[in-house]
Amino acid sequence: MSFFNAHIFCCTNRREPGHTRGCCAEKNAEELRDYMKARVKELRLPKIRVNNAGCLDRCELGPCMVIYPEGIWYSCKTKEDVDEVIREHLQGGKVVERLAI
């Protein structure tokens, strides 16, 4: 039995300015992670954990996150994207294809 129904790792890796691959942190990843954590808590979604992660090696596609146990990767660039992942994936059990990477 899994301790969490969903475990979400949000990349907030920070690279030096001007790095060719960029980084999720410079793409507002920390604010989006904080927003997701707050929304999950506000909605009282059971056994869902939103965590900070170091580099997930998808820098060019970020900000990115991966949701386990499914192993589905997303690039969420706005709060609306995060809301869609919460609604469709976490609550509805459907992959959000337009945000999947």
Describe the structure.
Helix content is 27%, strand content 21%. The chain is α+β, with helices and mostly antiparallel strands and 101 residues long. It has a four-stranded mixed sheet, covered by helices on one side. A hairpin with a 3-residue loop joins β3 and β4. The mean pLDDT is 93.
Helix content: 25-40%
How are helices and strands ordered from N to C? Answer: EHEEEH
Principal-axis shape: globular
| Overall pLDDT confidence | 93
Arrangement of strands in the largest sheet: 2-1-3-4
Number of strands: 4
Structural class: alpha+beta
Instruction: Report the uncertain regions.
Output: none
Which structural traits does this protein have?
101 residues, alpha+beta, four-stranded mixed β-sheet, 2 helices
Summary?
This protein is α+β, with helices and mostly antiparallel strands and 101 residues long. It is built from two helices and four strands, in the order βαβββα.
Note the topology.
Elements: E1 6-11, H1 29-42, E2 48-53, E3 64-68, E4 72-75, H2 79-91
Parallel strand pairs: 1-2
Antiparallel strand pairs: 1-3, 3-4
Helix pairs in contact: 1-2
